[in-house]
């Protein structure tokens, strides 16, 4: 026959089980108590799709709490996210909240970071009483990218592309008309003629110096120089009459180039005149000076 179980052993077994259960309950309760932290709320002016209850709340990557509730704010515009946070400092005064994506899964968590002066301007305005201390928020990186794309699209839409294209075509057409105009062709002809005259006069002076017939050449040289100056003055008047700078601003470079060319021609004529004047007053420079070197084809 089986021996009768002692009632004392049964009592001890039951007492031990109850004690273990009590200790377990106390441990769980204490853990929940120390893990409770303090409730805070932050308001987001964007979609919180991917954020849910019990989502993590991190401070610079370190877990400091969890999301306890997600609901619509009293103004029916913002989204209120209630969080249980355990931090030594008051996060409502020192941190800013931002939605952050976990990898490529699309799951969100609330990331806390140190508050900067410009964060207050980015935070949504709270125009109602809040049940918990408020941690300000700033737009997520996804929201910033989407906002930048929207702004670019609006600016592109507001841009008068047709008008700009028409303006460019009109400018190109005016440039072509100016390049084909008689005034520009006349300017180029005058420049070529003036340069040729100056080169001719210079050559005659050099030859006269080497041949000793400078006195016979001075009169012709002065006449040629006078003709070159008259051509240069006519060229200057034609450039001024064009008023190219008024052609939508794009033709200013052409005007500067033409003016630069005319200045170069003017300087060359002045240099030639000084040479003629010196030789006319002191022809001994030709008689006693060294003759120029002969060229390879002379």
TrEMBL record:
Pfam family, one: MlaD
InterPro entries: Mce/MlaD
Regions annotated as coiled coil: 211-282
Membrane-crossing residue ranges in chain numbering: 6-28
Name the record gives this protein: MCE family protein
Record domain Mce/MlaD: where: 37-113
Domain of life: Bacteria
Keyword terms, alphabetized: Coiled coil, Membrane, Transmembrane, Transmembrane helix
């Amino acid at each position: 026959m089986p021996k009768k179980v002692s009632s004392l052993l049964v009592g001890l077994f039951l007492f031990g089980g109850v004690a273990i259960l009590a200790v377990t309950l106390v441990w769980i309760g204490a853990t929940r108590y120390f893990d409770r932290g303090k409730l805070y709320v932050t308001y987001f002016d964007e979609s919180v799709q991917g954020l849910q209850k019990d989502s993590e709340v991190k401070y610079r990557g370190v877990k400091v709490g969890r999301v306890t509730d997600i609901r619509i704010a009293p103004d029916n515009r913002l989204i209120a996210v209630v969080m249980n946070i355990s931090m030594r400092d008051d996060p409502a005064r020192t941190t800013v909240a931002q939605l952050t994506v976990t990898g490529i899964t699309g799951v969100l968590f609330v990331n806390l970071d140190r508050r900067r002066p410009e964060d207050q301007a980015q935070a949504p305005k709270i125009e109602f009483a809040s049940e918990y201390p408020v941690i300000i928020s700033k737009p997520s990186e996804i929201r910033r990218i989407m906002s930048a794309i929207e702004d670019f699209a609006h600016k592109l839409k507001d841009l008068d592309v047709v008008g700009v294209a028409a303006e460019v075509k009109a400018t190109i057409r005016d440039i072509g008309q100016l390049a084909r105009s008689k005034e520009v062709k006349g300017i180029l002809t005058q420049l070529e003629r003036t340069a040729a005259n100056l080169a001719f006069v210079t050559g005659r002076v050099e030859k006269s110096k080497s041949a000793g017939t400078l006195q016979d050449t001075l009169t012709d040289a002065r006449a040629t120089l006078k003709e070159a100056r008259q051509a240069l003055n006519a060229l200057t008047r034609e450039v001024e009459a064009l008023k190219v700078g008024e052609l939508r601003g794009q033709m200013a470079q052409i005007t500067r180039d033409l003016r630069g060319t005319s200045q170069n021609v003017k300087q060359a004529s002045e240099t030639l005149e000084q040479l003629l004047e010196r030789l006319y007053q002191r022809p001994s420079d030709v008689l006693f000076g060294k003759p120029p070197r002969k060229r390879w084809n002379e």
